[in-house]
Amino acid sequence: MGYRRILQHENDGNVDYVAFYQNDSLYLKLVRSRNFNQEDKDRRTILENFGTHQMKYFLIGRDYRVTREMQTSDLMKTYTEQADTVRHFYKYAGR
């Protein structure tokens, strides 16, 4: 792809948010909505709402609570099954 992308889940003491970095530069930060979260433990997926966007996580590994790798759908205004056709691959790199 020619660039490095980082997805960071954090809590700044007030809100949960997800931040997207590309080549170490922040290009998007979205606050996670606390009233919308769909979890499917059997399929190991989580659909999260970030106010104006939704994203689905596909967890990889034996224990869905402690995963070192995951895939995400594309970030979309409204999640649809078409979002599953695009996958972004992430691997835990530590702090």
Overall mean confidence score, pLDDT? 81
Distance between the termini: 23 Å
Which segments are poorly predicted (pLDDT under 50) over 5 or more consecutive residues?
Answer: none
Structural class: mainly beta
Helix content: under 10%
Major beta-sheet overview = 5 strands, antiparallel
> Based on CA inertia axes, which overall geometry fits?
globular
In what order do the strands lie side by side in the largest sheet?
4-5-6-7-8
Total of helices: 0
Q: Report the count of strand segments.
A: 8
Count of discrete domains: 1
Give the strand content.
over 45%
Q: What is the ordering of alpha helices and beta strands?
A: EEEEEEEE
Our Rg estimate from Cα atoms comes to 13 Å
3D architecture notes:
With 95 residues, the chain is an all-beta fold. It has one domain. The chain contains no helices and eight strands. It has strands at residues 5-11, 16-22, 25-31, 37-40, 45-49, 54-60, 69-72, 88-91. It has a five-stranded antiparallel β-sheet with strand order 4-5-6-7-8, with no helix packed on it. β2 (16-22) and β3 form a beta hairpin. The relative contact order is 0.15. The mean pLDDT is 81.
